[in-house]
Write a structure and sequence with these properties.
Number of strands: 0
Mean pLDDT: 82
Oligomer: single chain
Low-confidence stretches: none
Largest sheet: none
Order of helices and strands: HHHHHH
Shape: elongated
Structural class: mainly alpha
Distance between the termini: 73 Å
């Protein structure tokens, strides 16, 4: 594959030698780049990022790229070199989820805060609803 921009038309056919050269370039890029970005590598090599996923021999290097990026973003966020919001945004692109989990044990008695009259009124409301749905 040459360094010239790709012309529109038929997809590029990568020979085994060209794929091996691409693997070497990708590995070098991952090793030498502080925060490797697969889209950047593809752009620098005049190709579409999705093409990289078509070749099994690139899968380990792609995963290494992803893991290094993840580790670097986490490190930068933990040392306050980038905002945690920026790190969270970038890490979501890698499949992280921004969710919170709250565990609760025991029971909640919603009626404990009601007066006896309020409880009775609420029970009548619920019975009327149940009767209307029957």
């Amino acid at each position: 594959m040459s360094d010239e921009p790709r012309k529109p038309g038929r997809p590029v056919k990568w020979t085994p030698t060209a794929r091996e050269e691409l693997l070497d370039k990708l590995q070098q890029y991952v090793d030498e780049t502080e925060i490797p970005i697969l889209a950047e590598f593809a752009y620098q090599n005049h190709m579409n990022r999705s093409q990289l996923y078509h070749y099994d021999e690139l899968s380990n290097a792609i995963e290494e790229c992803r893991e290094k990026k993840e580790a670097q973003l986490e490190r930068l966020a933990l040392t306050n070199k980038i905002s945690r919001a920026m790190a969270a945004f970038s890490l979501k692109q890698l499949g992280w989820k921004d969710t919170q989990s709250i565990e609760h044990s025991g029971s909640i008695d919603f009626y404990a805060t009601l007066t006896p009259e309020e409880r009775e009124a609420r029970m009548k409301e619920l019975e009327a609803k149940r009767a209307s749905h029957s």
